[in-house]
């Protein structure tokens, strides 16, 4: 995003229009421009090679469920089946199949913006697919010469995106494609949420080439199977991450089931030597998304990867969707985001937060006479019922564990949103421009309150804060323990510069 656009976003956030145009003299925080284009080019080139290598090196292993029926495929597998495109207004056009290819997909009008690449076959299994549509099971699903004696193997490609975040941080995103997403049974309504084409991802973060964490995105299982995990906490094969894929919806989780790590011996999808790697943006400073050429041109396609959903069912007004829903967008977007949550070890007594601002925020702050930064530590605890005799928060309950380890971690689950009490601990420090800010503040107060997120505000000398960030979720852990733990104070070192405009 250009800095003018960024400023516009920022001004929207604070509800006022930036009045005077930027004075170049007043922008001390801008990074210095590199000396010659020639040098910059080779540096970028080398850096990109490093990123592409990382993408190949950490090719994940997906463990599919034994219950899976809808298997992954390459994008190419689906191309011949897209027989028409539909616009949001319902205009239908047959596709020219010499355009529906990896290297020409972006030649659709407006790079396909607003279009739905659509199949002509029925795609609403309730619960079974029509015979004409069975290609939606994917190549593996159609293969009837499967081994009985050993675990099946899926050999499809995975689409890797490398994102240089600066300071040695490279994020690796691995996107998987499936011809079809099988929805979930919802009582009398049948199976809801079916859609043509499914894109799901697993993401990893590396620092100077060493993996430090991975993000899982399964749609079920809450904080136990989704979120950001330390590299040491996750299952690996050959030094590469393993993810469990939920049957039907294909969300990738760390754990297949909530409690025990269960491997149900479904097919293995090892993506080693099957990564199609791409670079996401030009560099960590400019953050301008690349335009791709040749076999990667399909990444410029801006439309949806399957049919438009239905909205004519009678329960649409109640549940918000029908049996068939809109197909998803493609993968090539939003990779600038920080991980799902910031990993931070728990401490006792005090919390420490270290963070930096990105140059666009610094520019804005400079123009608005920002002198102070307010840090809010967001603490939550499960809402409890005072009349409940089993209430674990009852101070008179002798069985109530004092140790935060004894807390029922599930109670802090995101799915419980609205059922937690929130209380913030605040601190104000001086604004230090480009420097890393460090603040030490009180731990969460009150029994069972645990750190869940933090946010920042930019404030004037008189203490009035004129712009506030979103919350950044925090996943806390104990050094000597696997997985996440909950507690009232953290030692957080945020490596993603704060910018308001992701
Ligand atoms: C869709 O297009 C492919 C390739 O042109 C063709 O083989 C197939 O018959 C078409 N299907 C329908 C239903 O039009
Ligand atoms: C299909 O696209 C190709 C390549 O752009 C073009 O040469 C051809 O004329 C198109 N065919 C039709 C029927 O529009
Ligand atoms: C879909 O297929 C049917 C039967 O083959 C055909 O009559 C119809 O025109 C096709 N529709 C589209 C949009 O291609
Ligand atoms: C079907 O599975 C067998 C055994 O795993 C494999 O050798 C063969 O290549 C597969 N065929 C296709 C078309 O995927």
TrEMBL record:
<feature type="compositionally biased region" description="Acidic residues">
    <location>
        <begin position="387"/>
        <end position="409"/>
    </location>
</feature>
<keyword id="KW-0732">Signal</keyword>
<protein>
    <recommendedName>
        <fullName>Vacuolar protein sorting-associated protein 62</fullName>
    </recommendedName>
</protein>
<dbReference type="InterPro" id="IPR009291">
    <property type="entry name" value="Vps62"/>
</dbReference>
<feature type="signal peptide">
    <location>
        <begin position="1"/>
        <end position="19"/>
    </location>
</feature>
<dbReference type="Pfam" id="PF06101">
    <property type="entry name" value="Vps62"/>
</dbReference>
<feature type="region of interest" description="Disordered">
    <location>
        <begin position="381"/>
        <end position="409"/>
    </location>
</feature>
């Amino acid at each position: 995003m250009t800095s003018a656009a960024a400023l516009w976003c920022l001004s929207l956030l604070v509800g006022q229009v930036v009045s005077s145009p930027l004075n170049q003299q007043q922008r001390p925080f801008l990074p210095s421009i590199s000396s010659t284009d020639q040098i910059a080019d080779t540096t970028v080139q080398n850096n990109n090679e490093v990123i592409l290598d990382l993408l190949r090196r950490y090719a994940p292993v997906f463990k599919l469920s034994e219950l899976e029926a809808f298997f992954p495929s390459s994008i190419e597998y689906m191309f011949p089946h897209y027989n028409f495109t539909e616009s949001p207004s319902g205009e239908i056009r047959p596709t020219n199949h010499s355009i529906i290819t990896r290297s020409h997909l972006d030649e659709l009008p407006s790079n396909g913006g607003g279009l739905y690449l659509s199949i002509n076959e029925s795609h609403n299994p309730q619960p079974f697919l029509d015979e004409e549509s069975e290609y939606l099971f994917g190549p593996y699903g159609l293969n009837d010469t499967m081994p009985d004696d050993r675990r099946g193997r899926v050999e499809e490609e995975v689409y890797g995106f490398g994102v240089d975040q600066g300071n040695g941080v490279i994020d690796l995103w691995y996107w998987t494609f499936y011809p079809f997403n099988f929805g979930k049974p919802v009582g009398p309504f049948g199976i809801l949420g079916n859609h043509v084409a499914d894109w799901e991802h697993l993401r990893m973060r590396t620092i100077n080439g060493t993996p430090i964490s991975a993000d899982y995105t399964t749609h079920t299982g809450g904080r136990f199977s989704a979120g950001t995990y330390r590299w040491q906490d996750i299952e690996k094969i050959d030094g590469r991450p393993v993810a469990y894929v939920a049957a039907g919806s294909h969300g990738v989780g760390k754990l297949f089931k909530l409690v025990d790590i269960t491997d149900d011996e479904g097919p293995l999808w090892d993506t080693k030597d099957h990564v199609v790697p791409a670079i996401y943006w030009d560099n960590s400073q400019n953050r301008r998304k690349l335009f791709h050429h040749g076999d990667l041109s399909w990444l410029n396609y801006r439309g949806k990867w399957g049919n438009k959903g239905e909205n004519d069912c009678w329960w649409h007004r109640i549940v918000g969707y029908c049996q068939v829903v809109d197909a998803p967008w493609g993968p090539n977007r939003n990779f600038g985001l920080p991980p799902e949550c910031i990993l931070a070890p728990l401490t006792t007594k005090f919390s420490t937060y270290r963070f930096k601002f990105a140059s666009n925020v610094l520019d804005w702050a400079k123009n608005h006479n920002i002198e102070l930064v307010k840090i809010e530590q967001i603490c939550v605890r499960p809402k409890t019922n005072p009349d409940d005799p089993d209430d674990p928060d009852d101070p008179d309950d002798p069985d109530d564990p004092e140790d935060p380890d004894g807390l029922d971690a599930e109670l802090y689950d995101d799915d419980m949103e609205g059922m937690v009490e929130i209380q913030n601990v605040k601190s104000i420090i001086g604004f230090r421009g480009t420097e890393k800010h460090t603040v030490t503040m009180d731990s969460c107060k009150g029994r069972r309150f645990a750190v869940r997120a933090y946010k920042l505000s930019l404030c004037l000398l008189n203490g009035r804060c004129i712009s506030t960030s979103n919350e950044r979720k925090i996943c806390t852990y104990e050094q000597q323990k696997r997985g996440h733990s909950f507690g009232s104070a953290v030692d957080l070192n945020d490596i993603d510069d704060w910018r308001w405009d992701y």
